[in-house]
């Protein structure tokens, strides 16, 4: 059974930082390209960063230079280091494979105050 458990969100002021974690089970993690997605109120879910099994990364233009995705294959965990946060980064953040599996975790709320 696939499990995706996101954590690390919270309330932070603009310019602050947060580190999100996603612990996975039930997937062959080390073979998968993993991604962080986010969904803001009233908007569609979007991919913000992904990391291949090789470590190759890609970022949405809106977060490039501010967010860093990484992975620990030994722990089946993917991380998202977020810096210089902006109010427009406010969203629920999810991890999933790329392309995403049908199953999603509960996500973790990130709220950036101005």
Characterise the protein shown here.
This protein is mainly β and 114 residues long. It is 0% helix and 50% strand. It is built from no helices and ten strands. The protein has strands at residues 3-7, 10-13, 18-25, 34-39, 46-51, 57-59, 67-72, 77-82, 91-97, 108-113. The strands form two sheets. It has a six-stranded mixed sheet with strand order 2-10-9-4-5-6, with no helix packed on it. A four-stranded antiparallel sheet has the order 1-3-8-7, with no helix packed on it. Strand 5 and strand 6 (57-59) form a beta hairpin. The radius of gyration is 13 Å and the shape is globular. The protein starts with a strand and ends with a strand. The relative contact order is 0.32.
């Amino acid at each position: 059974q696939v499990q995706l458990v996101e954590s690390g969100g919270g309330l932070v002021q603009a310019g602050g930082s947060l580190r999100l974690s996603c612990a996975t089970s039930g997937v062959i993690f080390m073979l998968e390209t993993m991604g962080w997605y986010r969904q803001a109120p009233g908007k569609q879910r979007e991919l913000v960063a992904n990391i291949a099994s090789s470590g190759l990364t890609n970022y949405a233009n809106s977060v490039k230079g501010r967010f860093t995705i990484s992975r620990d294959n030994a722990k089946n965990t993917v991380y998202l280091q977020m810096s210089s946060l902006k109010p427009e980064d406010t969203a629920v953040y999810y991890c999933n494979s790329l392309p995403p599996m049908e199953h999603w975790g509960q996500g973790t709320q990130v709220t950036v105050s101005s």
